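Exercise 7. Given the encoded structure of a 236-residue chain, write a plausible sequence.
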């Protein structure tokens, strides 16, 4: 069983168009998929589930759509918090939350605090997140530490960089799932996905149910994780 599954939830808009609806209705339907997949991950014993909710590039969408997404996001999190509590799920986030409207920030952080003591699945929401932003931010932090004498440049290694990322306390994903048939990772966890297994499905996110999630898990379980080694070395 993968300890950490990351998902690029793609296809809400296309789902809405295919059903003759406005894009926003696709996002609302997508919320149901989030609920179902979070529940499935918790039931299977997955320890971390990271969902790419809103990228820094998404701020460039039409203002009306962004405003609707922010409202839907906060209302959904508040509505689902009691369920998270009941199922022992802890809510975490990665990204630049300062970009969110003040009200959304406050309400979201309150929900995080309410689930802080939960010890089951960690549900990580990537909000106002992009990997290039994250890596740039990490480089700036490291540069400042070198300039101040807290860190020697020659001591910088992979671990140093990982410790300065948003995911410093989160293991790298074992499995990345992307829905809707797109075959790219769209500026998501570029550093962390170095050795992740990738699973692409044509299913649009609102239609991605528990059965589809199980298919991805079974596919993952049939793969050999070598991390640069040979099959013979893994067998030993």
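Solution.
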């Amino acid at each position: 069983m993968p300890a950490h599954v990351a998902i690029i939830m793609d296809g809400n808009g296309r789902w809405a168009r295919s059903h003759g609806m406005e894009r926003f209705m696709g996002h609302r339907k997508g919320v149901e998929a989030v609920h179902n997949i979070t529940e499935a991950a918790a039931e299977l014993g997955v320890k971390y589930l990271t969902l790419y909710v809103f990228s820094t590039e998404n701020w460039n969408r039409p203002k009306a759509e962004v405003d609707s997404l922010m409202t839907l996001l906060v209302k959904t999190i508040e509505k689902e918090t009691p369920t998270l509590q009941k199922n022992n799920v802890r809510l975490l986030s990665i990204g630049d939350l300062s970009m969110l409207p003040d009200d959304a920030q406050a309400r979201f952080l309150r929900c995080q605090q309410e689930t802080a003591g939960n010890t089951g699945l960690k549900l990580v929401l990537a909000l106002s997140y992009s990997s290039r932003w994250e890596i740039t931010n990490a480089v700036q932090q490291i540069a400042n530490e070198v300039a101040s004498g807290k860190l020697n440049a020659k001591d910088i290694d992979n671990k140093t960089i990982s410790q300065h990322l948003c995911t410093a306390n989160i293991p790298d994903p074992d499995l990345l799932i992307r829905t809707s048939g797109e075959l790219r990772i769209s500026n998501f966890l570029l550093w962390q996905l170095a050795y992740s297994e990738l699973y692409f499905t044509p299913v649009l996110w609102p239609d991605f149910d528990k059965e589809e999630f199980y298919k991805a898990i079974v596919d993952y379980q049939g793969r050999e994780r070598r991390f640069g080694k040979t099959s013979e070395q893994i067998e030993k």
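Remark. Residues 63-86 form the longest helix (24 residues). Students should compare their own answers with the one above.
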